[in-house]
């Protein structure tokens, strides 16, 4: 295997990927393994959150995969693994350490969940008998993933709760779910 060690090492943790080939393979793996379609932003964040690869190398690898036909960009901007990409991944899958694959997959799934949650939050304030109710919901398609109603004594407090929920939706959801499981 051709290990090109001329990648930038800045921002890469020990055990991270320093080969452009490995970075490309990991991106192909994410495109094939994640439950939802992969986007460029998700791929970059999945590889850089725990410093598995350098940001600039990751962006360049995505562009190269698009140019060489391993990935194809759909009309909605998602990245789809092509037959060429599946073949190269199948041949070289073992070149990526299992711990790196697992970390990238977990990070990719977490990023996708966060983006889905952030894009589907409804939080409104309703007058109650004594104060205000702040009614917050996280939606996925037509289903309510989580609903939460909090009481506030005045509108200013209710507005602060609403803004805080909107700013921290993914964190709130993640903490509640982790406490329940």
> Do you know the CATH architecture of the largest domain?
Orthogonal Bundle
Number of domains: 2
Report the end-to-end length measured between terminal Cα atoms. 42 Å
- Helical element count? 7
Percentage of residues in helical conformation = 40-55%
CATH class annotation of the largest domain: Mainly Alpha
Strand content: 15-25%
Shape estimate: elongated
Class by alpha and beta content: alpha+beta
Element order: H for helix, E for strand: HHHEEHHEEEHH
Contiguous runs where pLDDT drops below 50 for at least 5 residues: none
Largest sheet: 3 strands, antiparallel
CATH topology of the largest domain: Arc Repressor Mutant, subunit A
Provide the residue-averaged pLDDT.
87
Gyration radius, in Å: 21 Å
- Order of strands, main sheet, comes to 3-4-5
How many beta-strand segments?
A: 5
How does this model look, in words?
The protein has 181 residues and is α+β, with helices and mostly antiparallel strands. It has two domains: 20-118, Arc Repressor Mutant, subunit A, CATH 1.10.10; 121-180, no CATH class. The strands form two sheets. Strands 3-4-5 form a three-stranded antiparallel β-sheet. The protein contains seven helices and five strands; from the N terminus they run αααββααβββαα. The chain has helices spanning 20-33, 40-48, 55-67, 83-92, 98-118, 155-167, 169-180; strands at 71-73, 79-81, 121-128, 131-140, 143-152. It is elongated. Helix content is 51%, strand content 19%.
């Amino acid at each position: 295997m051709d290990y090109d060690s001329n990648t930038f090492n800045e921002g890469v943790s020990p055990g991270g990927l320093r080969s452009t080939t490995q970075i490309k393979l990991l991106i192909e793996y994410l495109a094939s393994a994640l439950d939802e379609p992969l986007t460029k932003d998700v791929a970059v964040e999945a590889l850089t959150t725990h410093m598995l690869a350098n940001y600039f190398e990751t962006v360049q690898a995505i562009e190269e995969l698009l140019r060489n036909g391993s990935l194809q960009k759909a009309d909605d901007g998602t990245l789809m693994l092509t037959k060429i990409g599946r073949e190269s991944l199948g041949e070289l899958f073992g070149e990526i350490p299992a711990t790196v694959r697992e970390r990238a997959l977990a990070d990719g799934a977490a990023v996708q969940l966060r983006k889905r949650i952030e894009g589907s939050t409804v939080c409104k304030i309703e007058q109650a008998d004594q104060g205000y109710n702040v009614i917050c919901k996280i939606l996925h398609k037509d289903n309510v993933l989580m609903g939460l109603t909090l009481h506030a004594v005045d509108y200013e407090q209710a507005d602060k709760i609403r803004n805080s929920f909107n700013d921290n939706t993914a964190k709130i959801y993640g903490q509640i779910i982790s406490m329940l499981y």
